[in-house]
UniProtKB/TrEMBL annotation:
<dbReference type="Pfam" id="PF00549">
    <property type="entry name" value="Ligase_CoA"/>
</dbReference>
<dbReference type="Pfam" id="PF08442">
    <property type="entry name" value="ATP-grasp_2"/>
</dbReference>
<feature type="binding site">
    <location>
        <position position="115"/>
    </location>
    <ligand>
        <name>ATP</name>
    </ligand>
</feature>
<keyword id="KW-0436">Ligase</keyword>
<dbReference type="InterPro" id="IPR013650">
    <property type="entry name" value="ATP-grasp_succ-CoA_synth-type"/>
</dbReference>
<comment type="subunit">
    <text>Heterotetramer of two alpha and two beta subunits.</text>
</comment>
<dbReference type="GO" id="GO:0006099">
    <property type="term" value="P:tricarboxylic acid cycle"/>
</dbReference>
<dbReference type="InterPro" id="IPR005811">
    <property type="entry name" value="SUCC_ACL_C"/>
</dbReference>
<keyword id="KW-0479">Metal-binding</keyword>
<feature type="binding site">
    <location>
        <position position="207"/>
    </location>
    <ligand>
        <name>Mg(2+)</name>
    </ligand>
</feature>
<dbReference type="InterPro" id="IPR016102">
    <property type="entry name" value="Succinyl-CoA_synth-like"/>
</dbReference>
<dbReference type="GO" id="GO:0004775">
    <property type="term" value="F:succinate-CoA ligase (ADP-forming) activity"/>
</dbReference>
<feature type="binding site">
    <location>
        <position position="272"/>
    </location>
    <ligand>
        <name>substrate</name>
    </ligand>
</feature>
<keyword id="KW-0460">Magnesium</keyword>
<comment type="function">
    <text>Succinyl-CoA synthetase functions in the citric acid cycle (TCA), coupling the hydrolysis of succinyl-CoA to the synthesis of either ATP or GTP and thus represents the only step of substrate-level phosphorylation in the TCA. The beta subunit provides nucleotide specificity of the enzyme and binds the substrate succinate, while the binding sites for coenzyme A and phosphate are found in the alpha subunit.</text>
</comment>
<protein>
    <recommendedName>
        <fullName>Succinate--CoA ligase [ADP-forming] subunit beta</fullName>
        <ecNumber>6.2.1.5</ecNumber>
    </recommendedName>
</protein>
<feature type="binding site">
    <location>
        <position position="46"/>
    </location>
    <ligand>
        <name>ATP</name>
    </ligand>
</feature>
Length: 402
């Protein structure tokens, strides 16, 4: 689960991590008042969306207006807010569709001496958290990793204890920090890592982490995502969820208890089991197709859930064919067949449908589909299913169905 920058900074402050003074604004007048409340000669007006690259992004209707801008008066804050709010911001992470800006963060200007990069995430290879830092703050970390990987520093984190002081000191020296900045790093970095661990984050990133003129470390940005499986422990975090920032179909699937991720292909997939779902997508690509989604109905889905799964898949206008791949262990194949036939009547399939069933109650299920008289193509195994759905997709595009 992702949250906005202003929400992340509030949680960081509650955890004892120092953050810049800021005010949240939802109107131009509030932005102007925020500038006055901060009381400084400079402030930064920041668009709040679930995407990075906001400073380099541009608005669709105001292409000269960046997503983050420096202002020197309340009037400037108000004018920039008027151009930002309600407009669609396009960044390298949003894609061409962009995201609408509904909230702004007005933040105090800082005396910036240096910019660093900081992130804490889970390293799947070492199976432990790791802190990553770089002297190249403010840049895309992917670009730094590709061009100057030697500038990326890493320290493995003890998941129980957190970041040791000697590790923070080591990172500070490697980054070339001096005097007060080293002492600031010895305090700030362990606190930031502790926030990551205590909050069950999957990633916490600050880009840039600035070193001020007096040697303090301050997060100029904050991007935090949380492990969905641990949200039951953090009610204060779940309350921060912004559904307007999420894919409608993914929200709908989550409400139905389904694991669904929208992709960019044109072959819809309905599978039970995450591993089988990934294998299904791989075989579709192997045989020349592109999956439109990851969808795992799980091992105990009922007729209503499976019907909703078909509805979600077919609500995607990009879907031109559907592949159902079910291995009946806990899930009975005849349950899937019943749901499939109900969905066929209720929703209507205007695209080719290929079904591969195996396992518990498979013979009953196959007979149900065969006796239905509906335009359903059966497959004997997964490879056969992938080949047939790709072929059916080609046939449908050359001869569109009515």
């Amino acid at each position: 689960m992702k949250i906005h920058e202003f929400q992340a900074k509030r949680l960081l402050a509650e955890a004892g991590v120092s953050v810049p003074r800021h005010v949240v604004a939802k109107s131009a007048d509030e932005a102007a008042q925020a500038f006055d409340d901060l009381g400084g000669p400079l402030a930064v007006v920041k668009s709040q969306i679930h995407a990075g690259g906001r400073g380099k992004g541009r608005f669709k209707e105001e292409p000269e207006q960046p997503g983050v801008t420096l202002v020197k008066s309340a009037d400037e804050a108000k004018a920039n807010a008027e151009r930002m709010l309600g407009n669609t911001l396009v960044t390298i992470q949003t894609g061409e569709e962009g995201k609408q800006v509904n909230t702004l963060l007005v933040e105090q200007g800082l005396d910036i001496a240096r910019e660093l990069y900081l992130a804490v995430l889970v390293d799947r290879e070492t199976k432990s958290p790791v802190i990553i830092m770089s002297s190249e703050g403010g840049m895309d970390i992917e670009e730094v990793a590709a061009k100057t990987p030697e500038k990326i520093l890493q320290e493995k984190v003890d998941a129980g204890y957190g970041l040791h002081t000697f590790q923070a000191t080591n990172l500070a020296f490697q980054l070339g920090l001096e005097g007060p900045a080293i002492r600031a790093a010895q305090k700030f970095l362990p606190q930031f890592v502790r926030f990551f661990l205590d909050s069950d984050c999957s990633m916490a990133e600050v880009n840039p982490l600035v070193v001020t003129g007096d040697g303090q470390l301050v997060p100029l940005d904050a991007k935090v995502t949380f492990d969905d499986n641990a949200l039951f422990r953090h009610k204060n975090v779940t309350e921060l969820r912004d559904l307007s920032e999420e894919e409608d179909s993914e929200v709908r699937a989550a409400d139905a208890g389904l694991s669904y991720v929208k992709l960019e292909g044109n072959i819809g997939c309905l599978v039970n089991g995450a591993g089988l779902a990934m294998s299904t997508m791989d075989l579709i690509k192997l045989h020349g197709g592109e999956p439109a989604n990851f969808l795992d109905v799980g091992g105990g889905a009922n007729v209503e859930q499976v019907t909703e799964a078909f509805s979600i898949i077919l609500s995607d206008d990009n879907v031109k064919a559907v592949l159902v791949n079910i291995f009946g262990g806990i899930m009975r194949c005849d349950t899937i067949a019943t749901a499939l036939l109900e969905a066929y009547d209720k929703i209507g399939f205007s695209v080719p449908l290929v079904v591969r069933l195996e396992g518990n109650k498979v013979e009953e299920a196959r007979k149900m589909l065969a006796d239905s008289g509906k335009a359903i193509t059966s497959a004997t195994d997964l490879t056969d299913a992938a080949k047939k759905v790709v072929a059916a997709l080609g046939d449908s595009q050359s001869s569109p169905q009515e």
